[in-house]
Structures are given as structure tokens and as C-alpha cells.
Amino acid sequence: MTRYSLSFLLIAVSAIAGLSANVQAEPLEFGYIELPPFGYTNSEGEASGYLAKLSKQVFQEMGLPVHYQQHPASRLYHQLKTGDTALTMGPAGLHQLRRAALESQEPAITLTLAIYHRQDTDPVFSVENLKGKRVVLMQGYSYGRLRRFFEEEADNMQINYARTHVSALKMLLYERADYLLNYQIPAETVIARNGLSGLKGQVIGKTPIHLFVSRQTDGAQQIIEQWDHHLRKLKQNDGLPTFHYYKKFE
Length: 250
Known about the structure:
- This protein is α/β, with parallel strands linked by helices.
- It has two domains: about 25-110 and about 210-245, 3-Layer(aba) Sandwich (D-Maltodextrin-Binding Protein, domain 2), CATH 3.40.190.10; about 110-205, 3-Layer(aba) Sandwich (D-Maltodextrin-Binding Protein, domain 2).
- About 35% of the residues lie in helices and about 25% in strands.
- It has eight helices and eleven strands.
- The strands form three sheets. Strands 5, 6, 7, 8, 9, 10 and 11 form a seven-stranded mixed sheet that branches.
- Helix 2 (about 50-60) crosses helix 7 (about 220-235).
- It starts with a helix and ends with a helix.
- The relative contact order is 0.18.
- The model is unreliable at about 5-25 and about 245-250 (pLDDT under 50).
């Protein structure tokens, strides 16, 4: 090989390597649904909340460029299937993404599920006791593995869907429904901030929240493994974001 040919080859290889580096540096989309105070869009149009802060910290440790975009749940799940959205967080075993995405092993956080009711309504301590009742569910929420229960028992209860936590809680207060299944901290955050009284809740279980990576994303398995590694490392070193602000609503 001539010196000229060798020089040309080195230049070509360098150009390809540079192109690959630029492609890899393209930020991946992290999609999220509105779940304050864990994840929401603030007044400046930016992703905020505990899970947004935690995930940004882990992605920074991974050296993975990511941009955040809020979506309705149905659109988010569709875009993870097509690969237009690369990343999200959701309840462990989320069946909508069972075939479309890889799931992390390490939970980012564990959320508490509770059933809310008015003071003049008898408490229930299991979703099985909601049969024959008027129930509010949050639109777009999967509630982990409980979603299948509501799909199978839909004819045995009157289910209404609410778009926001405020509207869901007001449906109880105005006696348009008798029970609401919701995550405890988001619900009680709204109760505290809006001065809603006359409601009680019973904890029925806990749901770990995991990272999901679309199978259409290049290096999806490596991203999952790196996420688990860095998240565990941060937990071991007490390097996670502080949680005191959110705990006051528990």
C-alpha cells in the first residue's frame, strides 16, 4: 500500500469514527407522564420532580445524553414500541411494554398504592372489595399488575377515569364516585396543596418503579446494565437526591 493510500485510509477511518461518535452523542428521548411530585413539567417547560432529578443524575454518571418529553400514556407506550421514544420509567412488570422494552432490575423508587374514600364511606383494603362499587382510576396509569384486574372485572364495577389528581379527588368529594385508587404521595400532595378535606386512604400495596428501554434503541441491553450499575452505586454511596420534601406528604 502506498503512503498516499495509507493516508487516505486513515483519514476515512477517522471520519467514520467521528461520524459514529456524533451519532452516539445524539440525545435519546426520555418520555414521561404527569405524576407530580415525582415527574411533571414545571412552569418553565422543563421536566421536574424527584424521578426527573434522579434519572438525570444517573444518566450523567453513565455519560448518556438524554432529553425529556412529556406524553400522554397511550402515546408514550406507542412511541416506545416504535423507538421514537427510547426511555421511560414505570411500574415493574408493566404489561404494555412487556414485548416492546427491556426492564431494569434495580428500582428507582417504590411507590405506595392507596384506596381513597369519603369519611361517610366504609374503607376497603383490597381491590377485590371494589367489585360492585363506583371507582375512579387515573387515566393513563397502569397501576402495575393491578391493571389486568380492572380489565377483567370492568363489568362488575362502575369505573370512571380522571385526567388529573384534582378532578379525581373532587369526584369523591362531590359523590360522583365512592373510591379512588391512586399513588399515595401524588394524591396526598394534591390534597395538602388544595386544602381538600374529608378524605381518607388505606394503603393496599407497593409498586417498584423501573427503567424501561425500547428494544428499538441501539445498545438497549447495555443501557439497562449501566443504569442498574450506576443506580446501585449511587444508593450504596448515599448519592441519590434528597427525598425529604416528598416525605412530608406521606
